Amino acid sequence: MSVERLFFRGGHAADLLIQRAHLLDPRTDLDGPGDVLVRGGEIAEIGAPGTLVAPEGSETIDAEGQHLFPGFVDPHVHFRTPGQEYKEDLDTGTASAAAGGFTAVIAMPNTAPTVDDASVLGSLRDAAELQARVPVGFLAAITKGLSGHELTEMAELRDAGALGFTDDGRPVVSAGMLRKALQYQRLAGGVLGLHEEDPSLSGAGVMHEGEVSARLGLAGYPSIGESTMVARDAAIAAFEGGRMHFQHLSAVESVEALAYWKGRGAQVTGEASPHHLTLTHDAVRSLDTRYKMNPPLRAESDRQALIAGLKDGTIDCIATDHAPHAKHEKEVPFEEAPNGVTGLETAFASIYSELVIPGILPLALLVEKLTSGAALYDLRTPRIAVGQPADLALIDLGAQWVVGKHGYASRSQNSCFFGRTFNGVVRLTVAAGTVAHRAPAPNATATGVTA
Question: 3-68+386-438: CATH homologous superfamily?
Answer without folding.
Answer: Urease, subunit C, domain 1 (2.30.40.10)
